[in-house]
């Protein structure tokens, strides 16, 4: 059984650890090792994670295996993104050994439920144009609404599709 729990500031090192164990296999065929290290630093230093929670209203949820309390992965989201009735899914990462077992679906369904409880009528997210997670999102009912290249400094770009899912 999977439990989905809120993440407090004292748990942020768990998020950081999962990211460091998941990003290499996720992005090794897409991004250079230097870009992966740079992005992990700007997005997953403990200071950055704290700022996401405290200043940017990001909420992190952790999926755990209830039998042994082991963390499996996380999602972060932001309600009312840019003052629209849209919940932005900023991050969703499962440890390699926990992928393909339905946990991603549980996390997206949970965020969708929270979004609807808060009056939001769609989910939105960005995904790297070359990430196979794109097929997961399509399976979950997301549609492509655009694309953008985001300059993240040091000469690096995030080359993303923008996806949205209507909530009924
Ligand atoms: C992307 C990710 C969150 C998906 O979660 P998951 O637990 O592996 O996916 P699920 O097992 O819940 O799959 C749900 C459905 O999507 C399908 N799916 C999942 N990954 C897929 C893929 N790569 N290609 C095609 N279909 C896929 C599953 O077959 C399943 O379909 P079904 O309902 O018909 O059985 C997870 O694989 C992951 O963390 N990947 C690496 C990190 C990453 O890329 N994160 C996204 C960054 S934007």
UniProtKB/TrEMBL annotation:
Pfam families, sorted: Acetyltransf_1 (PF00583)
UniProt domain N-acetyltransferase: residue ranges: 2-168
Domain of life: Bacteria
Annotated TM spans: none
Matching InterPro entries: Acyl_CoA_acyltransferase, GNAT_dom, MshD_Acetyltransferase
Gene3D superfamilies attached to this UniProt entry: 3.40.630.30
Any one Gene Ontology molecular-function term assigned to this protein's record: acyltransferase activity, transferring groups other than amino-acyl groups
Record protein name field: GNAT family N-acetyltransferase
């Amino acid at each position: 059984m999977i439990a989905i729990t809120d993440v407090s500031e004292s748990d942020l090192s768990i998020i950081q650890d999962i990211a460091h164990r998941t990003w290499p296999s996720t992005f090794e065929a897409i991004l250079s090792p230097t870009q992966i290290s740079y992005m992990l630093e700007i997005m997953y230093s403990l200071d950055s994670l704290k700022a996401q929670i405290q200043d940017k209203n990001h909420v992190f949820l952790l999926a755990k295996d209830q039998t042994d309390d082991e963390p499996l992965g996380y999602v972060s989201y932001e309600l009312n993104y840019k003052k629209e009735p849209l919940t932005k899914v900023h991050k969703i990462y499962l440890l390699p050994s926990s992928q393909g077992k339905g946990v991603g679906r549980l996390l997206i369904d949970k965020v969708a439920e929270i979004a609807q409880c808060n009056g939001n009528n769609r989910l939105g997210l960005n995904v790297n144009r070359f990430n196979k997670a794109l097929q997961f999102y399509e399976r979950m009912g997301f549609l492509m609404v655009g694309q953008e290249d985001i300059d993240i400094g040091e000469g690096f770009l995030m080359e993303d599709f923008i996806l949205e899912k209507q909530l009924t």
